[in-house]
Specification:
Radius of gyration of chain A: 21 Å
Strand order of the largest sheet of chain A: 6-7-8-3-9-10-12-11
Strand content of chain B: 15-25%
CATH architecture of the largest domain in chain B: 3-Layer(aba) Sandwich
Keywords (chain B): ATP-binding, Cell membrane, Membrane, Nucleotide-binding, Transport
CATH topology of the largest domain in chain B: Rossmann fold
Oligomer: heterodimer
Radius of gyration of chain B: 21 Å
CATH superfamily of chain A: P-loop containing nucleotide triphosphate hydrolases
Strand order of the largest sheet of chain B: 6-7-8-3-9-10-12-11
CATH architecture of chain A: 3-Layer(aba) Sandwich
CATH superfamily of the largest domain in chain B: P-loop containing nucleotide triphosphate hydrolases
Shape of chain B: globular
Helix content of chain A: 25-40%
CATH class of the largest domain in chain B: Alpha Beta
Order of helices and strands of chain B: EEEHEEHEHHHHHEHEHEEHHHEE
Subcellular location (chain B): Cell inner membrane
Order of helices and strands of chain A: EEEHEEHEHHHEHEHEEHHHEE
Number of helices of chain A: 10
GO biological process, one term (chain B): transmembrane transport
Distance between the termini of chain A: 25 Å
Structural class of chain A: alpha/beta
GO cellular component, one term (chain B): plasma membrane
Number of strands of chain B: 12
CATH topology of chain A: Rossmann fold
Largest interface: A-B, 44 and 47 residues
Largest sheet of chain A: 8 strands, mixed
Number of helices of chain B: 12
CATH class of chain A: Alpha Beta
Family (chain B): Belongs to the ABC transporter superfamily.
Number of strands of chain A: 12
Strand content of chain A: 15-25%
Number of domains of chain A: 1
Shape of chain A: globular
Amino acid sequence: MTAQNETPLLEVRNLTKHFNVGGGGLFRRDTQTVKALDDVSFTVGKGKTFAIVGESGCGKSTLGRSLLRLEQPTGGQVHLDGTDVTTASAATLRAMRRKMQIVFQDPFSSLHPKMTAGQLVAEPMLLHRIATRKDVRERVARLFELVGLAPYQMDRYPHQFSGGQRQRIAIARALAVDPSLIVCDEPVSALDVSIQAQIINLLTDLQEKLGVSYVFISHDLGVVRYISHEIAVMYLGKIIEQGPKDELFSSPKHPYTKALLSAVPRPDPTYRSRRIVLKGDLPNPLDPPPGCSFSSRCAHVRATCREVEPQLDAVSPQHRAACHFWREM
Amino acid sequence: MTNHADSPGAAAAPVLDIRDFTIELVTGKMVSPIVDGASFQVHEGRTLGIVGESGCGKSMLSLGIMKLIPTPPAKIAEGQVLLDGSDLVPLSDKQMEQVRGNRISMIFQEPMTSLNPVYTVGYQIGEALRAHSSLSSAAARQKAIELLRKVGIPNPEKRVDEYPHSLSGGMRQRVMIAIALACEPRVLIADEPTTALDVTIQAQILDLMRSLKTESGTAIMLISHDLGVIAEMADDVIVMYAGRIIEQAPVHSLFAAPSHPYTQGLLASIPAVEGEQHRLQPVPGTVPPPHDRPKGCAFHPRCSFSDEKCRAERPPLEEKLAGHRVACWHAGPGASA
């Protein structure tokens, strides 16, 4: 439950990111534009988890990177604790990065192989002058314990750890600067299911202990259900449905959300599948269908859908869906 | 549902009969079994699901059956692979070429890397056909178009001349399935066929595999880490841990009464999309590497039921319920596990 009167930690307003494809160079072609993010808005409260789900190419990772300005957005604003990230000066941005951190999917490529686990966790603290050379080891040891690693493992190198342990190192490194927001970009997708469950529990416990907020990017609806308070579903650069977790899972309104939910194989052989199998593939993002971008794959498509783009419409005070016919779904 | 649903092997002879299959990894002076004494059968028109986490040996097992394991360092140390009664293990490479893609086919996780980027889709399907029959190239092309249509590729007459890069991931996996089914194999081994695909595309491919199985009666060995996919597709299931089969049962029995603590742990680790939501109960610790497997039951360091006996002696795979075999000292009717 997000309290309405409390100022949110993160406020994203009309965020857009366009990539220009082709054009220029030796083989001159017309430039085409991919709208990787198209008018995305949401807020994240303190100590809450906001999940972004969608399939490959929906723009969820671009969104995560734009929040930290690892990508320069084309338009819109990202306010963290009242300061706009998108227009911040280099110096302000550096200071702000203390408050926001990111954990990536692949713990094999996101950790420098020639630094020890201890050095990896110590580096951000030394950079931001949170720790001194003297007390840094002590602080690293505490962080190791916090994420379920043994302090004696500090002097080992990343390759000596398993995938799950490496992800713990990445989380400890993100926590080292005591951030108020961590963007988690598919943090458990590369892990086996039993290890994945360990990391999900760890992230939940850390939030309880430290009050940190997460923007949790994932393609896995099951994982999202276990970690988030609020969920946004993305399709071709747009949020097409958004709402509190329980409401979204119990009464999804957008046909795409319904199809996504129904497509997840249930670990129960007696489950009678009411699966909605979508026709075809994701449309070419360079040439999205006119009107509703989901119209080319939707089973309920009507003439209006191919002409008029639906806007996010309030289903309930906190639940919104971008479908002309959500009332009938 | 057929009448032998609960007792595989009771009726017709199996298409594939694996006996005491062992693959060893030889590194320096160290010999470690990566698949250790696996025995199971795959029947016509049925799907055997093989489930386990990274490093459990499930992929090595499937590559071993195809005799595609890198030798050295790995080698088949023991056992038989009986395809319609005749053993593949002693066959030469030349003889295996006549079997692969013909009587046994395989599809892999990565449809991006399993297709050759410089040949058209039609050529690659035709290649499989021409290798195992005397079809002319015109006839092979015609058959390729038919196969593309069968695996649900729209506009096959046009797609047949396209290159893999112009197809989406789901389409490429359909092409891989078309190639695998070109010679109407007796057995199809599918190693994580939908793992690289988005969930809505996965649903399409699983649907396709199910209807092809019903039509052709091909026996399927489906390897997956996803218990949801296994529950949906398999008739019988094998759970592997550290190179060994630790539980083996008809699918309904396995999910209704998971009996090995590891299987129970896997099921308790899944974040479900519906039903009651309680804290996940992950299996503590990690999978031991092949050269450092614990004595006794390989799972004992991670098991909450382990005792003296588990640390000392390896439990055999024994029938504990009808058709349901478990390798655990604590499993069985009335046992605590």
